Amino acid sequence: MRRKNAAASPDADATAATSNSTSALTESGSNRSSNKSSTSRRRFSSICAGLLLVYVFQRNRSASILESSSSNSSNSAKERKKANAGKLVYGTNKHFASTAANVAQAIRVGGYHHIATAGRHANYNETACGEGWTQAVLLSSSSSDNAGRSTRGTATSREDLFLQTMFVADNNPDFDKSWKPLPRDNTDSSGATATATKSGSMTIAQQVQSSVQSSLRNLQTSYLDAVLYHNLKSKLDPYDKVLEAWRELERLVDRGIIRYLGITNIHDLGYLKRLYKDARIKPTIIQNRFHSNRQFNVPLRAFIQERQIAWQAFWILTGNGGVVSGKVAQELARKNGITPQQYIFAFVLSLGATPMIGSKSAKHLQEDMDIAMRFDSGAADGKDAGATPVEPQPLLLIGGDADRQRFAQALGNADLVAI
Fold first, then answer.
1. At what angle do helices 204-218 and 126-141 cross, to 10 degrees?
2. What is the average per-residue pLDDT within 151-173?
3. Measured between alpha carbons, how far is 331 from 201 in angstroms, rounded to an integer?
4. Residue 210: phi, psi to the nearest 5?
5. Cα–Cα distance between 29 and 38 in angstroms, integer?
6. At 289, is the secondary structure helix, strand, or coil?
7. Mean pLDDT of the region 175-201
8. What is the pLDDT of residue 401?
9. Of the candidates 154, 114, 116, the residue with the CA atom closest to the CA atom of residue 135
């Protein structure tokens, strides 16, 4: 509409200009000496009319360029809506040198938009994760390179992605000992600066600041969708230390650098309740193993469901390989027309959890996303706009409550489906 109106105005001016010019030319012609031929007058009028057409064309062209410039400025000034968390999370633990290629494949071929990495963690390549998503977005934005592209609304901008990382304290065994901060990153929100570039000389608040600034650079972004405080397996860091780090993370949320906060490997309900109570900005994500030695998160599930805390479940296939390859999983998967791997992911989704997927296979990435999409009737996880809505089928997908109960028993915890 703006383009049409902008184009109409020069035309109106041109019409008036044509009328005025014609009148002027007629008047000019009447004052000429009588011996001027009518041919000369027509030639002169034709030249002027031609010049006038050039003028009108340039006016229209200039108006179009100005409108386009104004429109682009308006669009860039208007912040795009940021992505929500995904129904599946693509995790990059131990992808190392193949991280960039795997992330790009997950986004472009699998249709994933929620990508998880970690800063200062020995098993993650955060820099390559940044390279992967930028490569995927660049390729997806190019109409000339759509080979193998997912039909599920592949990300074409940073705002289409949910980038999640972790903060790892320097005394955590997972800490990458080769990591070194830049001097300018060592300042915490109080203005205190470490005197050395060794992480061990910094306070926990300075470590948080340094880690987050490093993550922003590595991931090539101006904001992080989520930062999780990382605990090692079942060993929780001292509460006071976690709370001090959390306070610094809260300040970064206040500044718009981080959107959401979370914590990993937290299986102690009392600890989680205490953190939730003391935190000004509440945890919205917990990332826990899906395994019998962690009770499949059963002790925490009622609490996190009541407070709408997302549970990201990892180690699903690795930790339950015997069950997945077992008789029960095979029978239930065959009955429902899916693979045993798809069945356990569907089961985890039916518990209200978010499976973390780490596959390097394009085929498996697509199969797993297919399961998530069948749970979702909306547009999440890149469902094409205008596509026919599909009704959610969480129970039909895995055979209903009786089959869920049978599978929970195969996992060794019947209470999984009792909540």
1. 30
2. 91
3. 56
4. -65, -40
5. 10
6. strand
7. 70
8. 87
9. 154
**Cα–Cα distance between 343 and 390 in angstroms, integer?**
19
- Measured distance CA(83)–CA(28) in Å, rounded: 67
Q: What residue type is 110 in one-letter code?
A: G
Measured distance CA(344)–CA(178) in Å, rounded: 37
- Six token digits for residue 247: 């306070």
Question: How many other C-beta atoms lie within 10 A of the C-beta of residue 69?
Answer: 10
pLDDT per position as a tens digit, 285-304: 999 999 999 999 999 999 99
Helix (H, G, I), strand (E, B), or coil: what is residue 381? helix
Q: Both tokens of residue 166? A: 């972790």
Parallel, antiparallel or unpaired: strands 89-91 and 354-357? parallel
Which two three-digit tokens encode residue 124?
């993650």
Dihedral angle sign, alpha carbons of residues 136, 142, 148, 154: positive
What is the number of alpha carbons within 13 Å of residue 414 lying toward its C-beta? 3
> Taking a C-beta distance cutoff of 8 angstroms, is the pair 379, 389 a contact?
no
What predicted TM-score, i.e. pTM, was given to this entire model? 0.76
pLDDT in tens, 369-389: 999 988 764 333 333 333 333
Query: Distance (Å, rounded) from C-alpha 358 to C-alpha 366?
Result: 12
How many Å separate Cα 68 from the centre of its chain? 29
Q: Kindly give, in sequence order, each residue whose CB lies less than 8 Å from that of residue 326, ignoring residues fewer than 6 positions away.
A: 410
pLDDT tens for residues 261-277? 999 999 999 999 999 99
Of 26-35, 217-226, 273-282, the range with the lowest mean pLDDT is 26-35
Token pair, residue 41, equals 């007058």
- How far, in Å, CA of 255 to CA of 21, rounded? 60
Q: Per the structure block, which two tokens stand in for 373?
A: 């999409």
Q: What is the DSSP string of 336-364?
A: HTS-HHHHHHHHHHHTT-EEEE----HHH
Report pLDDT digits (tens) over 14-73: 344 444 443 433 333 444 444 444 555 555 455 444 444 433 333 343 333 233 333 333
